[in-house]
Amino acid sequence: MWLWFHKLSSPPYAYRLATLLRPWFFWVAMALMLFAAYGGLVLAPPDYQQKDAFRIIYVHAPAAIMSLQVYVVMAISAAVGIIWRIKLGHAVAAACAPVGAAFTVVALATGSIYGKPMWGTWWEWDPRITSELIQLFLYLGYMALRASFDDTQRADRASAILAIVGVVNVPIVKYSVVWWNSLHQAPTISKLGKPAIALSMAWPLYTMVLGFMLYFAAVLCDRVRSEILRRERNATWLLETVKTS
Amino acid sequence: MQSSGLGALVRLVVARDLRLAVRHWDQVMQPLIFFAIITTLFPLAISPALDELRRIAPGVVWVAAMLASLLALESLFRPDVEDGTMEQWVLSGQPLSLLLLAKVVTHWLLTGLPLVLMSPLVGTALGMPESAWPVLMATLALGTGSLSMLGGVGAALTVSVRRGSVLLALLVLPLEMPVLIFGARAVDLAMHGEAVAGPLNLLAALLLFFVSLGPFAMAAAMRVSVES
Amino acid sequence: MHAQAETAAAEPQLDVRAVHLWRGERHLLRGTSFVLQRGELLQVVGPNGVGKTSLLRCVAGLLPTESGEVIWRGRQLHECRDEYHQELAYLAHINGLKPDLTALENLQYSVALRRPVMQQELRATFSRLRIDQCADLPARALSAGQKRRVAIGRILLTRASLWILDEPITNLDSAGIALFEECMAEHLRTGGLILTAAHQLLLQGRPGVRTLELR
């Protein structure tokens, strides 16, 4: 197991592995997402209160879950990169950031689209949306810090420290936002809370989450491959791979 | 060869920075003036009526304090990095996290503490009752400490970036939002005569948390910044 | 006793092996290696931009290398970083002086960071470097050459065994250069090690002085 992990840290091996796995991740993800979409849009019965509008939850909730998960993956791989000096860790962290930011934007946009028919406003300061917004700022800050260093290695190390500081602060931010909101809210359920646990409604959600996760894995494979290409462009193993392919 | 003890190191850093501050009073005053100016913007932008201002006073004072503390961060590490002194600290063989912690504490004494002392004046100008003063000062005392620690980490990361002040704000403000939430809310509760123990304890816990982990993040970030 | 001294001399104090460094696109250091013993001076020479400063910063532990090792007294740099730095004095292009403190205060704070130091010792160093008149002036009032001498004073006062000096004689007049060479010679005599990067070769013709050319 440890030996495999060590092999994984070598860029040529990681490159080949990513190339191999990507189609699997992508097509299974597509299948799951289509299946979940069918289940959510067609099969699931309309909600008692919200009728068909609630269906956007099938995109909103997975996107919100992923936006946090990707941040954690980013922070962990950056930590691996800076503590054990494994370059691949930094490549993965760099690859994660834009994807995580995109998930956050999707979560915010779908949250807003959900809000308009339900409450008549394009924006509400409820805890979910507010913490998604702060999450977006954290991603943007990370990407801005990366971009401000010309040297890739320095950018890696500086942004790794930021990612670790950020991930430690995320629970604090989430708790404080919930606390902040609870002082004003009367309703007991969060406006964008998960729907009732009727199975017909729940399974498309879980399937969609799984589909999103695999889609993230596929996109990550693509992005890590191009990160490796960019970072190792002078290496001999790459020139040989390009020659033979 | 005997080495300097840890207590001696802290005293050295504090003495040096205080001496430098005395020779540059203007740099110490600037964030305070900024604090006053920002607070003045709100009555101008909203309304001169104290009743209306009173409702938003805790938030305004707190946001102004955050922005003033952000401005003050410029003078924390940049001069030392530019004249090569920070490089010598990194190479001193002494615990860099301790040196930087001492520096941030001194910086807080020069920029954060004056803000705390000024806050009743500013609060009164926005219609805050005297009964809220103790809580205002307590929350700002605890809060500006956290702002200095988080700001120190951000400053250490961005000190070698050209024109990095906006980037510093971008990185640090989202992390500081919990401090703002608890601090402003506590003052608001005090103004309505309600119990403030909850948010005050949370502020104290945050401060302890940041003080215990912040110096290590600062030292790691500083080593990266000082590379070239 | 004699055999002990011999084996101690045989083991290098500083061992730099196959250091590689990239600066953005450029492969700056390609497997640079050297060893340094007590009483030796190594001068790194080469054209501008070839990587002299970067090499010195890597050996000092400021700049992480892509690959390769820096070994101090048998231990890897990253294992014993603090102890290594306690034995190291580094002189960069910039002097490391705060403009608003007097020269004396500057040295007081820099040196006291490492070891307790008395005022007499600081003033004695100023005398040795012929800059007594500068001691109580703010650093911004000094000329470039005087500031360099103050920075050299810091190197002398830290009592480190390894000196890493980047262009040490910039802004020094010929008297200053001669003074500095004398300080270097004394340091080598007492078993110190020196690594410099300079355009002008120092202490030429002396035993234990080598050059390393970077291309």
Summarize the structure in words.
The complex is a heterotrimer of chains A (245), B (228) and C (215). Chain A has 245 residues and is mainly α. Chain A is 79% helix and 0% strand. Chain A has helices at 2-8, 11-43, 57-83, 87-119, 127-147, 152-182, 199-231, 236-244. Mean pLDDT of chain A is 84; it is low at 186-191. With 228 residues, chain B is mainly alpha-helical. Helix content of chain B is 82%, strand content 0%. In chain B, helix 2 packs antiparallel against helix 3 and helix 3 (50-72) runs antiparallel to helix 8. Chain B is elongated and about 60 Å long. The mean pLDDT of chain B is 94. Chain C is an alpha/beta fold and 215 residues long. In chain C, 34% of the residues lie in helices and 25% in strands. Chain C is built from 7 helices and 9 strands; from the N terminus they run H-E-E-E-H-E-E-H-E-H-H-H-E-H-E-E. Chain C has helices at 2-10, 52-60, 81-86, 103-112, 119-128, 144-157, 174-189; strands at 14-23, 26-36, 41-45, 67-72, 75-76, 88-91, 162-166, 193-197, 209-213. In chain C, the strands form 2 sheets. Chain C has a 5-stranded parallel beta sheet, with helices on both faces. In chain C, strand 4 and strand 5 form a beta hairpin. In chain C, helix 4 packs parallel to helix 6 and helix 5 crosses helix 6 (144-157). The model of chain C is unreliable at 3-8 (pLDDT under 50). At the B-C interface, helix 1 and helix 5 of B face helix 3 and helix 4 of C.
Architecture blueprint of SSEs:
The complex is a heterotrimer of chains A (245), B (228) and C (215).
Chain A: H1 2-8, H2 11-43, H3 57-83, H4 87-119, H5 127-147, H6 152-182, H7 199-231, H8 236-244
Helix pairs in contact in A: 2-7, 3-4, 3-6, 3-7, 4-5, 4-7, 5-6
Chain B: H1 6-22, H2 25-45, H3 50-72, H4 74-82, H5 85-90, H6 96-125, H7 133-158, H8 165-191, H9 197-225
Helix pairs in contact in B: 1-6, 2-3, 2-6, 3-6, 3-7, 3-8, 6-7, 6-9, 7-8, 7-9, 8-9
Chain C: H1 2-10, E1 14-23, E2 26-36, E3 41-45, H2 52-60, E4 67-72, E5 75-76, H3 81-86, E6 88-91, H4 103-112, H5 119-128, H6 144-157, E7 162-166, H7 174-189, E8 193-197, E9 209-213
Helix pairs in contact in C: 4-6, 5-6
